[in-house]
Amino acid sequence: MIRIYFILTFFLVFIKVSEGSAQSLSNEAIAYFVEAEYLYADKDYNKALEYLNIAEKNWGEPNARTVHLKIKILFELERYNEAQQLINTFGRYESSEDIEEATYYYHKKIAEKEREESKDGGNYYFEKGYNAYQERNWAIAEKYLNKSIDLKYGNGNAVIILYQLLAKIGAYTKIEKNLIRGYKTYPENDTIIAAIIDYYINTCREGYALDFLNEMIALKPNKASYYYARGALYDNKKFNDQAIYNYEICLNLDSGYFNALYNLGSLYYNIGVKQMSIANTESDSKRFQSKKKIANIYYRKSLPYLEKARKINPIDVPLLESLKSLYFRFDILDKYDEVNNKLSKL
Q1: Three-state DSSP class for 250?
Q2: Which secondary structure element, helix H or strand E, spans residue 288, and what is its range?
Q3: Residue 225's Cα: distance from chain center in Å?
Q4: Dist CA 262 CA 308 (whole Å)
Q5: Is 195 exposed, middle or buried, given 0-12, 13-18 or 19+ CB atoms closer than 10 A?
Q6: How many beta carbons lie within 10 A of that of residue 250, not counting itself?
Q7: Residue 95 DSSP label
Q8: How far is CA 177 from CA 165, 211, 324, in A?
Q9: b or e along 201-237 (b: 16 or more beta carbons within 10 Å of the residue's beta carbon)?
Q10: How far is Cα 203 from Cα 201, in angstroms, rounded to an integer?
Q11: CA–CA separation, 52 and 37 (whole Å)
């Protein structure tokens, strides 16, 4: 709502600045101008610009005060080129020395800003965005992180920080757009790729995740992590054959890929558990033994993968618990005692 109660005060002040023209100014134009000043002070710059344009339209043309305020607004909106163009034309308007001095001061501010950003624009925006993120100033952080991504600064950390920010503030409709843009800008950043897959999974769109992974694998068929991720997707959906196939390709490409070793060992172990549960339902001894043998096949398959995983991460408790169970099952007592002792110290 227009703050009409400002009109009289402003009108009296305006007469001192431009006595010859003040009498012809419409009260409506003055009201919009005063409202624009109020909105500027309240940092609602876009709305301030809107009201200022209405004021100028009602007056029929700009004047020194409207141009001065517009320059300030455009500066805050970082529309520096437009602000500079207005400064360049300011001399055509009659103004007080104070207004003229304050207006040309923005020429200096714009020049300083351009010098500051030209040193390394992407880094400048990233630092501002990251600092704002640390201070939980979400709107400013989002703005500057986006600018740093637009300038393709760095290796893509801004994309991940922006992803975390958007999740924190619940701006879920922006997340996918940010991540896809991030991937296109930084296609070598595996963290962004993993974030896209996680996002699809967390939004119950495993099909999208699978399609995305298939595209990645077509582009980079020797990337072990992609096969691991695809194996994990199939594993989660209980498509055991497809999961095993992808884990094995991953390990052929990178034999020390801990997550693939652990997941493949766990997959075989869990199949063994399921088969043993089936065996335990059999009252007939021969049928029980037959199904127990099937369970033990899968238990034995899991053992080498879990043992290799242990060499990479010897203090993973769930991994050690699985090995302890297997060593006990197959009567490998020296290793059982070793793992049991290890667990007691963790």
Answers
A1: helix
A2: helix 285-312
A3: 21
A4: 8
A5: buried
A6: 26
A7: -
A8: 14, 17, 46
A9: beeeeeebbbebbeebbeeeeebbbbbbbbbbbbbee
A10: 5
A11: 8
- 210 Ramachandran zone, left/alpha/beta (phi>0; psi -120 to 50): alpha
Location of structure tokens 């010859």: 20
Distances (CA, A) of 63 to 21, 35, 53, 73, 91: 10, 17, 12, 15, 11
Cα(199)–Cα(275) distance, integer angstroms: 34
Write the pLDDT tens digit of every residue in 130-142.
999 989 999 999 9
Over residues 49-77, the pLDDT tens digits come to 999 898 888 887 888 888 889 888 988 88
Contact (Cβ atoms closer than 8 angstroms) between residue 310 and residue 298: no
The amino acid present at 179, given as its one-letter code, is: L
The closest of 240, 238, 275, 235 to 259, measured between CA atoms, is: 235
Contact 235, 269 (CB under 8 A): no
The whole-model pTM stands at 0.63
Do the Cβ atoms of 165 and 141 come closer than 8 Å? yes
What is the distance of C-alpha 345 from the center of its chain? Answer: 39
**Per-residue pLDDT at 27:** 77
Structure tokens at 211: 């399609």
Nearest to 144 by CA among 165, 171, 170, 167: 165
